[in-house]
Amino acid sequence: MADSLEPASFWTQANALLRKNLTFQKRNIKTNIRLISFPFILCLLLVLIQALVNNELDKPENKCGCRTFDQNGDGVEEKVCGLEYSDLDQGTWCAIRNPPEWPPLLQVPAQEYRAVESDVMQYADFPYESCRTTGSCPVTLLFTGNNQSLGEILIGNMFTSSASATLNSSDVLVALALNVSGSHSMPQTSNFLDPAFYSDLPIYNLQRQCTQDPTFSVPIQINSFERQQEIRCAQGLPLWRNSSAEINNVLYKGYRKGNPERKINEILGAYDFSNTNANNFNVSIWYNSTFKNDTGNVPIGLLRVPRSVNLASNAYLEFLKGPGTKIQFEFVKEMPKPENQLRLDFSSILGTLFFTWVVIQLFPVILTSLVYEKQQRLRIMMKMHGLGDGPYWLISYAYFLVVSLVYMLCFVVFGSLVGLKFFTLNDYSIQFVFYLIYVNLQIALAFLAAAMFSNVKTATVIGYICVFGTGLLGGFLFQFFVEDTSFPRGWIIVLELYPGFSLYRGLYEFAQYSFNGNYLGTDGMKWSNLSDGKNGMKEVMIIMVVEWLLLLFVAYYVDQIASSGNRKSPLYFLQNLRKKKRSASMRVPSLQKQGSNKVLVDMEKPDVIQEREKVEQLLLEPNTSHAIVCDNLKKVYPGKDGNPDKFAVKGLSLSLPRGECFGMLGPNGAGKTSFINMMIGLTKPSAGAAFVQGLDIQNHMDEIYTSMGPALGDPYRKGTSLILWQTQESQRSRLDTSEFFIRLQAVEESLKSVNLYNGGVGDKQAGKYSGGMKRRLSVAISLIGDPKVVYMDEPSTGLDPASRNSLWTVVKKAKKERAIILTTHSMEEAEVLCDRLGIFVDGSLQCIGNPKELKARYGGSYVFTMTTSSGHEQEVESLVRRLSPSANKIYHLSGTQKFELPKHEVRIADVFQAVQNAKSRFTVFAWGLADTTLEDVFIKVARGAQAFNVLS
Question: Which residues form a coiled coil (predicted)?
Fold first, then answer.
């Protein structure tokens, strides 16, 4: 095997790719500004919302009341704030050294929610629904136990018979404590005073039977305030149920949450006196939990539960000791507290959702960058010019990591500068570790996802769906599960295996700690908080580290299998192990015949058969000087939508020594580009084998790339493109593109050779080059680094004559040291550059040889043309038949006729003499005699092959 080029060193390749990426960033400064502006805008939006909220919270009604007066009699007025100068709303924010007392209340259902008979509650002992329109519905209380008669006694002891006299007494609060009272007002998290005493809602007094004057007002004195409080009678309706299970069923059907308005049937409460008797008191109590939050554990307010327990205790005491025996429940009150101010940090309230979008939006950016290189075949182009997988992964990963860290640094710094508590209260070291781990996981995930996409637009759409979908699912689904303590913790961990939910959970923990720290005036999350069992940050970090390492390994493995069109076997690493065990002398056995199931076609020409036999002989030799050997190479594209399979290449056998330029001629769609794509590893052969420098293209492409130089694509043909960084986004200039490959391998002279070094085009974007300039740049890149095998797919298309001649000079000089396969539609170019030609039609090689041989073989005739008036056309044809009886008319239009004259039947002198004689008899407007051109040969062979295929 001939010596191949040694690849550039690892660090040379890494340096080249790093410079390319840095140049990319330099030329995409506007895109980077737009990317970074997104978190800036969100942070500014949160600052604006916070300012509006703070402005609202700074209003007097949200602060403790104040008054300005001369407090000491010295004529100096001072501002004094306190509870005595505040109304009931302002009193919530005042310092309260001696909190007021208020009677214990029950949570009584509002009139419109009280239980009635309906399609949901089909119980005959419930009142009719018509009571809601009259406002006379009783308050239902359920009870059960082992002894119904005892239960009826106990439940009857809970209600008073009449309360009008006591409630009209001088001390109304004491009277309310002695009676059974309640309210349907919503309790609060912190109560300066129960809302029932300063809202416009009534207080209900529960009695066995409401008598006259069921509604009246009484004055209530609270500190320095006095207000009229409406008192309403509410009839208590105790109902027996046979079991606690039946009570559960009734309570479930009547629960307010999750029911349409007309279906709500709230119950005051329920008691199960299961084993209660004269010697034992055992009771279970159900209470109205309407005002708990949706997780079912953390109350929105202080639930009115103690009074329910006190009623059961007093009822049992009265049963044992008789009327008048009770435990007096006089009052409840809050703990003393200092003055406080409402704090709402909107960066913590909204930050989890917003910041999830901010962080995860890097995912589609990285993903589209990787898919773009794949779609435009830039990755494989870099491999063809010597870039190994190791440097590519190292620099690409490090590049995206640095970009991500700079992005996150800007995000955190800007959020801190504008004063968002989300950043300033939580320990920065925890934030750094969390973001560092996540961006590494995100990059690994992007590398893995890039293997699943081949189109940038599709990857972009899916990427941004993931961005917004993750945020919305996290905010409206995942967070609900996290806050619900009844939801299994194991399933939370399962959900956190999705990286987006891991990010959301971490940001949620930051938000919770910053919100509580801001509200309570304490610090946010510290490292010591990670040991808290309720803090999910520790488990999230562990999950992300494990996933990062696992996904990185899987991404690299998948990339090795599917990094190009020539896919590797999933067990390729076993093949690599076997290769390492082989000796150096065993690196060429791939040149042995593969047994590719050849089927010789009867219509194959002798020159094609001879080439096939030559390939078979080369396959038997242990070493060869031939740079390229193709053995019955085939490519079949499976049919779709009921169409038959497309045979792009039908068993091509070809050998190409060094120092030869082989030209592939053929009509569009003949299979030339498919053949080259197989040879450079873009697509995998369907059958057959091919060897470059003695290496099999299906197993050793990485080694083959070190000795290959491709110049591919047609800028004028739909569906193809030059493999250059030419998009508006990348904005790479001619020098940027070529210098990248030069750093991988060698030499500046290639640019001068194709006239791209001077003329003021060095800083012009490659995407804005003309088609011809792109062609020359592609050819220059293909020759960099002295490759031993070069593929040129229509290299001179779109070039002006001067540039084409310059390019031809470069190719003629280059072919002295290497093997070149060139496809072209220019017969002139084929004759000038190619040592041998092969005409390719419908996937098959129809003939092969040097240009002179082909013209001699397929063009053994002269072409005679004569133009006369229409009246002399017959005389012209008679003249030609006398010169050559076997002449064939190939063209006839308006007096112009063209004939093929076999060379063995004609002497050129006789043709001149015959024309001279004809001119004496009639007018000859024009005439000509030409030898067969290569274009004539191409047309003749192509038409013949296509006609044969149609008949077949």
Answer: none
